[in-house]
Specification:
This protein has 399 residues and is α/β, with parallel strands linked by helices. The protein has 2 domains: 3-136 and 301-352, Rossmann fold, CATH 3.40.50; 152-181 and 183-238 and 240-290 and 359-384, Phosphofructokinase domain (Rossmann fold). It is built from 11 helices and 11 strands. It has helices at 17-28, 43-49, 60-65, 86-95, 107-122, 149-169, 188-192, 216-230, 271-283, 305-323, 374-384; strands at residues 3-9, 34-40, 52-54, 98-105, 128-133, 176-181, 206-208, 233-238, 287-290, 329-338, 341-349. The strands form 2 sheets. A 7-stranded mixed β-sheet has the order 3-2-1-4-5-10-11, with helices on both faces. Strands 7-8-6-9 form a 4-stranded parallel β-sheet, sandwiched between helices. A hairpin with a 2-residue loop joins strand 10 (329-338) and strand 11 (341-349). Helix 1 packs parallel to helix 10 (305-323). It starts with a strand and ends in a 15-residue tail after the last helix. 51% of the residues are buried.
Amino acid sequence: MKGNAMIAQAGGPTTVINSSLSGIITQCLKENNIENVYGCHWGLLGLINEDFVDLGQEDKSIIEGLKYTPSSALGSSRYKLSEKDMPKVLEILKKYNVHYFFGIGGNDTMLGVYQVEKYCREHDYELYGMGCPKTVDNDLFGTDHTPGFPTAARFVALSVLQAGILARDMQKVDQFVIYQTIGRDAGWLAASAFAVKSAECDPPHIILLPEVPFDEEKFFTKFEETYRKFGFVSIICGEGIVYADGTPVSASKTKDNFSNVEFGAMGGTSAAMMLHRMLTNKYGYRGEFQVPESLPMCSADRAVENDIDEAFLLGQEAVKFAINKTSGLMTTIERISSTPYRIKIDTIPLDKVAAKTKPVPEEFIAEDGMMMTESFNEYIKPLIGEFPKYVKLNFYPVK
């Protein structure tokens, strides 16, 4: 089937989402069956508005440079396709002779690609739709990890390591520090801070995940035990932590276009802020809280080389599958071994990924629900690379 290719980036960005874009464009330009390569400006909103750019006209150096450029080069949005959009989408695809459609994004984006591919199939229009995974949250089913997660995890782990050293040395000023990660329903990023912990006294001391209902009394007990031992407490929390009844710890009631509760700035409050208030109200301690919001999504200075390469490869492979008349799938990463680290590319049907969330498995969570297990380290460490070795004084007394 000769025709044109269309690419959309949607949802939140990652440091390596443009690497997948580069991979798709690069492979499309090699394929004889693909005549032109178009990009949707502003994600799926660009598809509806016929706001397209001709990516085939870009200089080769730009396409190559995308591999190392953070954020979403095509522009993104969180527009949610509805059933009433589908007739217009089909009309637009026909108008531009698009027979290859690629969506780079998370579970909501995979839902959009699934809707387009399914509607075209039901209406006898030959379209090969493929999804390419992206999300720092690492919550897509069917893939060992998602491109963007290793770099974001490294950002979090390094930040917690450095902030933890600061908190240790400033404990006579601030008795605790709270670091909040993004990740609405899954705690993969919060958990990643565990990778820098080599001894019990090392930060982080408490990790709070959305997968584990927040228990205020258990939290206070763990905080007190830790403070007695080390003189300060390093706490990591996922933005979406909730009480047992499902109420967000952040107390946010604001919702986005997908009916998801907004956290952080858009919610007007945060879990870290509420935890800080709990601790200061109960103990009168000083403390800091850090909410970096989208910084882990665009941290090119901390990019993991494997993350860049895997994102590019997943984009290339999505095109190869489509050219071979494969449709309705998302390319995935299957881990063959951790030591040495080796992977292969596979696929999963879009309907098994769309609008679903992959939680942190129970075997990765410690019994008390506030720390990770060593098996999590076996999973995470091959993804995020080595960390700098910081030293501390021995404090030899003067004689």
